[in-house]
Design goal:
Blueprint (H helix, E strand, L loop, with lengths): L1 E10 L7 E10 L2 E6 L9 E4 L4 E4 L1 E3 L18 H14 L3 H17 L2 E5 L6 H11 L2 E4 L18 H15 L7 E3 L1 E3 L7 H14 L3 E5 L3 H11 L3 H8 L6 E5 L5 H10 L2 E4 L1 H7 L5 H7 L3 E3 L4 H4 L4 H16 L7 H8 L1 H6 L17 E4 L13 H7 L6 E6 L2 E5 L2 E2 L4 H18 L12
Parallel strand pairs: 1-4, 1-5, 6-7, 7-8, 8-9, 10-11, 11-12, 12-13, 13-14
Antiparallel strand pairs: 1-2, 2-3, 5-15, 15-16, 16-17, 17-18
Helix pairs in contact: 2-3, 2-16, 4-5, 12-13, 13-15
The structure holds zinc ion.
Length: 450
């Protein structure tokens, strides 16, 4: 299969950040085989004229809870304990494997329509359900189970020993790792230090190294978390993980809001990957030291987190929020620039999940994972004075017309090619209601219901 995309503004995100004002991309099967200015071959199966459009790498969402997709709106405007114990734990612990599948399908609909083709899940309820949905959708995923071996107030269904948690993950790994032409990988998950013994932390890392995969963990997420670490381990989360010898290049540290400057240096030294989730952080976590991390050379990627903390599972919106919040708290209008944010959402994301050799930039020999953007579709993005800043500050996901992963169209002209959108929306509504009923989750009415 040969596909030619011609006459587009091509934002490559390659090491020299080349941009072609009017470039061509030739895709053969799953790979980009030619890019730039060249005479198109005569034997293409499909030719798309992209005059006036922009092509860039598709997004990598490095921290997102596929199993929480049906919990959108379940925990708005509540404190952390209510959020956790009255809404999210009852919701997640009431899910079936089928719920996990439907939740992930609905999640994939939103990702593909917002131009994201690679995700890292920190810990869902059923790797089996998530994998099934991701394979059908055609995106890439690093899947992990929600893993906890200690902690107060855990639902009964979640009380497991360290051995049980590790054995289940190895079982998932043997079944689903490297399936779907390598698009699905299974990683090890650790929810937080609140719910993990040091034994779990160390043995997870050992096993991840053994299988050549990563560990995804919420690290130094909330102020209360680093205080808990101090009280139980004698020092803050990152220092403790450093002392344990856990910090390494195959760790995704989600949020990482509460780091000292010395701990930023620990991340740099061990090449820990940070998943910055700005919208979610603004709910209750605080401002991560992203400007410092970028300056020090820490690999910072972006993530949406789950629907109960962000509501918008949309990397386009996440770029926009990133472009605002650091300028606001630092009072520095030139801090965290558009080009850095574009890198966080693409090539840094690929690096964070260990796939920078495969995608995250448009280069000959790399996988054809890309999106086609139409800035002329509506008033939102016009006029385009600065093509890079425009993508970060003005683009909406509705400007994304086409999404491709592994050389295969997942969306064309806003129509999904691998999933039945209408059917999934219906199933999503039904399953969301059923989970709440099973988990006895009832939201108080904000206004009198007449
Ligand atoms: Zn999370």
């Amino acid at each position: 299969m040969k596909i030619l995309l011609k006459n587009a503004m091509v934002i490559t995100m390659n090491p020299t950040r080349d941009v072609y004002r009017s470039g061509n991309i030739l895709i053969e099967d799953d790979k980009i085989t030619k890019l730039g200015h060249f005479n198109p071959p005569a034997d293409c199966d499909e030719i798309m004229d992209c005059q006036g459009k922009t092509i860039m790498p598709s997004f990598v969402n490095t921290h997102t809870h596929t199993s929480q997709q049906l919990a959108r709106g379940l925990a708005d405007d509540v404190d952390l304990l209510t959020w956790l114990r009255e809404r999210i734990w009852p919701y997640e612990s009431s899910m079936t494997e089928e719920d996990s599948y439907i939740s992930t399908l609905l999640f994939c609909v939103e990702q593909i329509k917002a131009g994201c083709t690679s995700i890292a899940e920190p810990g869902g309820q059923f790797v089996s359900g998530m994998a099934k949905a991701v394979i059908e959708a055609g995106i890439r995923a690093k899947l992990a189970k929600s893993v906890m071996d200690c902690g107060e107030g855990l639902p009964k269904a979640w009380q497991h020993t360290t051995d049980e948690e590790l054995a289940k993950q190895e079982e998932d790994l043997k079944k689903y790792h490297n399936t779907a032409d390598g698009r699905v990988k299974v990683w090890f998950g650790i929810r937080t230090i609140f719910n993990a013994t040091d034994e779990l932390i160390l043995r997870s890392k050992e096993l991840a190294d053994k299988y050549g995969v990563g560990v995804h963990m919420h690290i130094a997420e909330a102020k209360s978390e680093v205080e808990y670490a101090k009280a139980t381990r004698g020092c803050t989360t990152v220092t403790h993980l450093n002392n344990l010898g856990f910090l390494d290049k195959n760790i995704i540290a989600a949020h990482s809001v509460w780091l000292s400057n010395e701990e930023v240096e620990m991340f740099r030294k061990h090449d820990v990957k940070v998943s910055h989730n700005p919208a979610s952080a603004m709910r209750v976590l605080g401002f991560a030291k992203i400007p410092r991390m970028l300056r020090e050379g820490v690999c910072v990627a972006l993530g949406t987190d789950g629907t109960p903390t962000n509501n918008r599972m949309n990397m386009v919106d996440e770029m926009w929020v990133t472009s605002l919040i650091h300028k606001g708290w630092r009072l520095e209008p030139d801090v965290v620039k558009a080009e850095e944010i574009l890198a966080m959402a693409t090539i840094n994301g690929a690096r964070a999940v260990g796939d920078e050799a495969l995608y995250g930039s448009l280069e000959e020999g790399k996988k054809a994972d890309l999106i086609i953007i139409n800035p002329n579709l509506n008033a939102d993005m016009l006029p385009v004075h600065d093509p890079i800043a425009n993508l970060v500050t003005s683009m909406h996901s509705t400007n994304i017309e086409c999404t491709m992963c592994d050389g295969r169209w997942l969306m064309k002209d806003r129509i999904l090619q691998t999933l039945n959108e209408e059917e999934i929306l219906r199933a999503g509504r039904e399953h969301a209601a059923a989970i709440c009923k099973r988990g006895n989750i009832v939201l108080p009415d904000r206004f009198p219901m007449l």
